[in-house]
């Protein structure tokens, strides 16, 4: 089974691999990753824009190479800039889609102030916590939870949930 990940971010790649290996433990899995544009702002704001970014990434990946599944992931903040949520979209070779979002969590005012100034969430987290490149490591969720839930763990469950329609095709995809 060939899976294309619409990101070169190592955390997103690892999360997709972990989720697919858990859902399809008996399958031979081959992963590829490409940097696919989201078509939305660098820091998506609101449910619709964040979901659209994940959908665009999955669709863009499906145009890049032939595979069984294409995965788009996109993190965003709500319009009030006080919570974070990410969307996962899985598209199969037939164009069928499964989607899910992560849990949301509250952002501290120091971060929301920076978001309101136009900073991306990861950059705001680096400023507040004095870190570098948390986007490719723990993520802001990892910084805020002191590593209890890092960005990979945060994404894995949502990817697994986005795969539900594909492991229950008769219930989701009528022929």
The CATH level-2 architecture is identified as Alpha-Beta Complex
Distance between the amino and carboxyl termini: 22 Å
Main sheet overview: 6 strands, mixed
Any idea what the shape is? globular
Instruction: Give the proportion of residues in helices.
Output: 40-55%
Number of extended strands: 6
Structural class: alpha/beta
Mean pLDDT: 96
CATH class: Alpha Beta
- Unreliable stretches (pLDDT < 50, length at least 5) are none
Could you tell me the radius of gyration in angstroms?
16 Å
Q: What's the gist of this structure?
A:
This protein is an alpha/beta fold. The protein is built from 8 helices and 6 strands, in the order βαβαββββαααααα. Strands 1, 2, 3, 4, 5 and 6 form a 6-stranded mixed sheet that branches.
Explained architecture:
With 175 residues, the chain is an alpha/beta fold. It has a single domain (2-105, 150-172), classed as Maf protein, CATH 3.90.950.10. The chain is built from 8 helices and 6 strands. The protein has helices spanning 10-23, 47-62, 109-116, 121-129, 139-144, 151-162, 164-167, 169-172; strands at residues 2-5, 30-33, 69-77, 83-92, 97-101, 105-106. Strands 1, 2, 3, 4, 5 and 6 form a 6-stranded mixed beta sheet that branches. α1 packs across α6 (151-162) and α3 crosses α4. The model has no long low-confidence stretch (mean pLDDT 96).
């Amino acid at each position: 089974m060939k899976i294309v990940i619409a990101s070169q971010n190592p955390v997103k790649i690892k999360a997709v691999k972990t989720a697919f290996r858990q859902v399809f433990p008996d399958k031979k899995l081959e992963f590829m990753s490409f940097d696919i544009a989201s078509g939305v702002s660098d820091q998506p704001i609101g449910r619709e824009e964040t979901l659209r970014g994940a959908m665009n990434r999955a669709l863009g990946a499906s145009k890049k190479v032939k595979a069984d599944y294409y995965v788009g992931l996109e993190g965003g903040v709500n319009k009030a800039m006080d919570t974070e949520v990410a969307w996962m979209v899985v598209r199969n070779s037939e164009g069928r889609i499964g989607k899910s979002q992560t849990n949301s969590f509250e952002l501290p005012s120091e971060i929301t102030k920076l978001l309101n100034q136009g900073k991306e969430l990861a950059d705001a987290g680096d400023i507040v916590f004095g870190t570098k490149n948390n986007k490719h490591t723990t993520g802001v969720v990892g910084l805020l939870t002191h590593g209890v839930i890092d960005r990979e763990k945060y994404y894995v469950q949502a990817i697994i949930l986005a795969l539900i329609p594909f492991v229950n095709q008769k219930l989701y995809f009528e022929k």
